[in-house]
Amino acid sequence: MIKALRLDKLGKLRSYPADMRRLMVEALIALAWGRVLKQLPFARVSPSLGEYMKETSYESEREHHRQTVQISRALHLVSPHVPWEAECLVMAFAARRMLNRRHLPSTLYLGMRRDEQGKTAAHAWLRSGRFYLTGAKELEQYTVVGQFAKGF
After folding, report:
1. Domain of life here (predicted)?
2. Can you give the pTM of this predicted structure?
């Protein structure tokens, strides 16, 4: 089901500082790109995700951390209002794209678990330095089955 773009909510965009508004527009575009990537076969997307089963450093500079927090905030503000599904993998792809534009390193994680009914569940999250931009709330419930490091 496609939900309608909530223009009334996006109208509140004016209440944010100009730099955050620009970041939110970039987040909207990145989320659209993430949704496109999710539709493609994973074998086609995975070569662009970085080095398989590698991790980037947990160390980061203060400015790097500030930028990752702002990117995460913009994505989390915008994602509930887009007319397409913007769950964990789409969010991780979008955050990765935004970090790549700034030449900031990150690691994208893919995890699996069994739910209460024994069904397999998947999750994706993205980390840059010590900060988890997306998917942090549930990551401890999942076993990492793949990770992709993108360093600069």
Report:
1. Bacteria
2. 0.89
